[in-house]
Amino acid sequence: MTSEVDQVTASGGPDGADGPQGRPGPGAPRRGKPIRRVDRVIIRFAGDSGDGMQLTGDRFTSETASFGNDLSTLPNFPAEIRAPQGTLPGVSSFQLHFADHDILTPGDAPNVLVAMNPAALKANLPDLPRGAEIIVDTDEFTKRALAKVGYAADPLGDGSLDGYHLHKVPLTTLTLEALKESGLQRKDAERAKNMFALGLLSWMYHRPTKGTESFLRTKFAKKPAIAEANITAFRAGWNFGETTEDFAVSYEVAPAKLPAGTYRNISGNLALAYGLIAAGQRSGLPLFLGSYPITPASDILHELSKHKNFGVRTFQAEDEIAGIGAALGAAFGGALGITTTSGPGVALKSETIGLAVSLELPLLVVDIQRGGPSTGLPTKTEQADLLQAMFGRNGEAPVPIVAPATPAECFDAALEAARIAVAYRTPVMLLSDGYLANGSEPWRIPAVDELPVIEPDFATGPNTEDGAFWPYKRDAATLARPWAVPGTPGLEHRIGGIEKQDGTGNISYDPANHDLMVRTRQAKIDGITVPPLEVDDPDGQAKVLVVGWGSTYGPIAAAVRRVRADGGHVAQAHLRHLNPFPANLGTVLAGYDKVIVPEMNLGQLAMLLRAKYLVDAESYNQVRGLPFKAAQLADVLWAAIGTLDGETR
C-alpha cells in the first residue's frame, strides 16, 4: 500500500448501518479502530484449487467495482480440473489491484497475501515485498501439509516471516464455530472458510457487503441452508476483523475519479461476447457461433448462448473443424459467422480459414491465446500465435489481424473485427489472450448511437451489362466481392476452394489468372482502412520508442509512467491492427533512435517490424505464462535510454 494520506478514527454505528464512505456494518458494534487512507492496494487470495479463491476474488472485485475504485485483476489457476490437494501445482490465486486513480495493471507485488495453506504461502511468498501483510489459516499448517510442499520447519514459528506483518488466523476453526448451529456436516461447513476470509478482507478494506449477500442467496437459491451458512461465515469474518486485536487498523481507498458515465466491472471474454452481440445488432445480421469448448475461450460460447433474444445462435460442435465449418456455412447464408478457440484450435481450423480466404466471405476467428506448443499451458497467458495468425495457412492466404489491449477494449475490438470482415468480405483474426480473457476492469457502457453502423450491402441483382451476376466482380474502393445470399433470384453462382476466374468465379487453372487473384486478395487486405498509429510522446524529447501489441499495453504503459516520473524520456505506441499495419508505422519507427518491443513470445512482432521496415527493433521477451511486471519493463527502458544518453537512474 502506498501514499498513506492521513489517519482518522471511525465512529461507532448501528449493526447493519453504513459507516464512513458507505462502509457496511453487518455485525458487532464499532469500536473506533483507526482507519488509514491509502491510494492503492494489491491483494492476492491464494489456496488450494478447491478453496474457492476465484469466487472469493471475484466477489471482492465486484464490490470494489460497485464502490467506484479503478481496478485490474489477475486470476491464476491450475490447468488440471482438480490438481493434487495441498501441492504447489495445485495452488490457485486471484490478484486484485484497486486504487483511487487510474491504474493499468494488476500490480507487480501484493501488499496483502491471504494464504489458505502452506502450499499457497510457499508458492506466493517470493512475490511479496518485505513489510507486506500475510494472513494465513493456521489450521492448515499441519506436519503433513508442511512436508508435502517441502517445509522442514513451520514457517509460522521459525522466524522466516519476521520481515512481514503476519496474521495467524484459525480460519477453519472460526468458520466451524460460526456455523455450529447451522446443522451442516463438518465438510460442508469447512467449505465456507473462503467466505470468512472474504468477510475479514471486506472489513479490512471497507468493501460493501450487501451485493455479496445477495449474490450468495441467488447462487444457492436451491440450497438455502448453504446460502445462509456462507452468509453467516461472511459476516463472522467481518465481525472478527472488527473485534480482534490482531487487526488494529483498517484501510480506506477512496473511489476513483473516472470520466462521467455508467460503469460495470467486465472481463475480456465477457466484453468480447458483448461486442459480438453489438456487431450483430449494428449490422442487422443474425449472429452464428460455431465453436468447440477450449480453455480459455469457452466463456464466450457460454455467454453468447444466453442471448438468443438478440438473434444469436450458438452451435457447440463435435470438434474444432466442424465448428468453423458451420460458421463459414452461416456466413455463406448471410449471417455474421464466428468461431472461437485458442492456439491448438486455430491449427485445426487453418484449412477452413484458407477456404474462407478463397470464398471471400466475412468470418471472425477469435483466438484467445494461451501457452504452447501443443496442449502447453492451458490456463496461462501467452502472445505466441501472431505468426500463426499471419502465416498459418497453405498458399498465399492473407487475413486481417486485430488485437485488443485491455479487457474492456475487447468490446471495441470485436466491433472493429466485424466491420473489417463485412466491409472487405474476408475472414478476420481477433487475437486476445488468457490475461485479457480472465482479467477484468471497469468498463464505461457506451450509448448505442456511439457504436459504428456496419453495412452488409448484400447483392440484390445482376451486376453486368448483359444481366448476368458475377460473384467476383469487385468494389473499386475495397476490392470486396458481392455478398449474395443463397435463394436470391438471379444471383445463382458457383463457389468452392479451387481457384476462381477473376469476375465470373468459374474454375480456372490459368497461370496468369492465378497470379492476378493472389495479388488481388493481398491488395484487398493491404488496402483496409485502419486508423493511424498514435504515439504518446508528451514533450517530443524521447529517443527511445517502446512498441507493443495486445495485452502488454498495461505493463508497458505503467513502466513508461514510472520512467517519466523519474525524469526519463520515452515514447510509447501500441498496435491494435497487426495486418495491415497502420500506414504511418514506418514513419513512426524511423523517428526514434531505438525501438524496444516487449512481447510474451520470442520476438514475433519484432521480427515482422524488422522485415517490413528494416528497423533495428530490439526484442524484450518473456514466456512464463504471466504478464510482464511494470518495474521489470521500466528497468529495460532505463537501460535503453542509458545506452543513448549515458543516463542512469
Automatic annotation (TrEMBL):
Regions of compositional bias (Polar residues) in chain numbering: 1-10
Domain Pyruvate flavodoxin/ferredoxin oxidoreductase pyrimidine binding: 287-500
Keyword Zinc-finger included in the entry's annotation: no
Pfam families listed in its UniProt record: PFOR_II (PF17147), POR (PF01558), POR_N (PF01855)
UniProt xrefs under SUPFAM superfamilies: Pyruvate-ferredoxin oxidoreductase, PFOR, domain III, Thiamin diphosphate-binding fold (THDP-binding), TK C-terminal domain-like
Domain Pyruvate:ferredoxin oxidoreductase core: 542-610
UniProtKB keywords: Oxidoreductase
Region Disordered, residue ranges: 1-37
UniProt keyword annotation of Oxidoreductase present: yes
GO biological process: response to oxidative stress
Domain of life per record: Bacteria
Location of the Pyruvate/ketoisovalerate oxidoreductase catalytic domain: 50-237
A GO MF label: magnesium ion binding
Name the record gives this protein: 2-oxoglutarate ferredoxin oxidoreductase subunit alpha
Annotated source species: Kitasatospora viridis
Source organism phylogeny: Bacteria, Bacillati, Actinomycetota, Actinomycetes, Kitasatosporales
